[in-house]
Amino acid sequence: MHESALEDIDAYGENPIGNGPYKLAEWNHNQNAVVVPNEEYSGDRAPQNDGIDFVFYAQQDAAYADLLSGNLDVLDAIPDTAFASYQDELAGRFVNDPAAIFQSFTIPEAAPHFSGEEGQLRRQALSHAINREEITDTIFQGTRTPATDFTSPVIPGHADDLAGAEVLNYDPERAKELWAQADEIAPFEGEFTISYNADGGHQAWVDAVANSIRNTLEIEAIGNPYPDFKSLRDDVTNRTITGAFRTGWQADYPSLGNFLGPLYGTGAGSNDGDYSNPEFDAKLAEAAGAEDNEAAITAYNEAQEMLLQDLPAIPLWYSNVTGGWSENVDNVEFSWKSVPVYYEITKN
To answer: What's the whole-model pTM score?
Structure first.
């Protein structure tokens, strides 16, 4: 940070000094913030506009209404109330593409019936029992993209043809066959639950996934709502949760490894299911020590092929970035981070 931060950190927080293409010109709390080009910036992201006015809305619907009326230039999140209409209303001035956000549900390694050979069979059966295409079309109205791996299509090196990726295809007959093979090892009893936080808008898709599993495998599969995110995370962190639970990841930086190491490496901080595979760990180490990106990508995808066999988490879909812009601007593109590339936007 700039040295002035040390003199008065509170004042610096109100008027921060950065080294990017813009600098803060005005900040009206809870209303808007205005940035203008930074004359001291000498990098390769030179602003193609005179600055940006970030407007803070209490409701997404109000922001969308302003977009349609021309009072807002760019919106980076279409409200779900407009999912059925925004593509027609914006007439080509929208984006609906996979983002660097991966959604899944995790089954703890210690969960009864989900370890060893029996567990691998059941995990694969569950994956085949989920109709991802139908759920993303019906529940999310096409604003999610069915997963083909454990990362995201916007990350360099992503592949949708990994060995074993067919386990992510909806195949009811194969699902029943695998579940029956697992029952021969030890019959499954009781409910299969998917826990989620009720304050996060997850009930519809959890219920749809549970219904798909129940109808396919003819077992009692249900959603298990927690009142809030903290309550769910407390049980996950304390390892007091016994069934499956919703999980996901948003990339910190554009690397396949950022999706794999933190979630599935032995002892990793976000490895909530306690998955451990020495061969997988070795592949992560090989990728991290690779001489170039191409070699690293190869190793990371070989590691993913192990995950597709073990399924420590069941991949569901990638969240899409859904945004739009008015007729007042051009050159609007969204980066891998799911936000507009602000400095490229030009005003008509």
So the answer is: 0.83
